[in-house]
Amino acid sequence: MSQQFKILTFCVALLMGINSFGQTPFMSQPFFATNFFNPASVGFVDNNQFQTFYRNQFSGVGDPYRTIGVGADFALFKNEENEGYNNFGLGIQAVSEQVLNGILKTNEITFSLANRVFLDRDRTRFISLGISSTMINRNIDRNALTFGDQYNSGRLFNPTSLENLGNFPVKFSTNGGIMYTQVSPDVFMQFGGSTYYINRSSNTQVYGNFNQTFQFISSFNYEKKILDDNTFFVHANYQNRAEAEFLYLGGAIGLPIQGAYNNNNRLYLGCFYRSSDAIIPYFGMLYNKYKIGVTYDIYNNKMTMSNLHPQTLEFTLSSYLGRNISKNLKSIFN
User: Fold this and answer.
1) pLDDT digits (tens, 9 = 90+) for 218-230
2) For residue 250, what are the CA distances in angstroms to 96, 189, 220, 270?
3) What's the pTM?
4) 134 and 109 in contact (C-beta within 8 Å)?
């Protein structure tokens, strides 16, 4: 136990010693990747897991915005002595946001550490606290840009506006979260919140500085077994970002399909609503070790009144490592 305490103390000191600024990705399936939004959720599922997602936003107006993310969760100090109920979890997430076919890229890598405290002897209810550190790197592909003042009657002039684009400094972020989780053979429930400090770089050609602020995220996940092996789930989250404030709410029905792992395999059909923005149909599948999700954003804002038709498609994939031996509900959330 003293060795665990030393490792935890070292990791916390390393994370807290970094000057911090950061931001989370924008997704239509945030319930699929809770570890990307709340560091308190990492490392506490039944098995280690790997996650990835791809989001192509506004593809109907060209290819203006893509988001790609990968993440992994690991249980720390899980052994026979604690009967497989680890108190510490570790998570690693990487996100790449690409604008205009990658002309502008923002790459982030995050390390998260969490600790949980059980509230009952059966260890079906616990509160977890998490902290994460993010490294943020932004870069511009200057070879893909051409400014009008580079040319005059066919001649190339220097200096040009292109030279005003300086390098973005690498930035770091330290973020925190809290989460309550309850599990049973028939119910999975989870809710909590996290906060991030948003700091964006400003270029010399931009007048005025970006208003630095905090980002707050709160979320609620609930799935319950009904009518034998059918389930239904509800997800809600509130996000207060620098560029938007919105409520995301919806749910889905889980229909059983044949397979291994005690008939826990299911197809999910549902729909979500993001306030003042979009209605989002959802199709998901939980099959053996894999979770798959697909969403398509149907926008209901003023953008749809133009001749342009924005389309946003998001695909998610998750796989856990090892056998699922838990007697509790195998939920789309865990």
Assistant:
1) 999 999 999 878 9
2) 27, 15, 11, 7
3) 0.80
4) yes
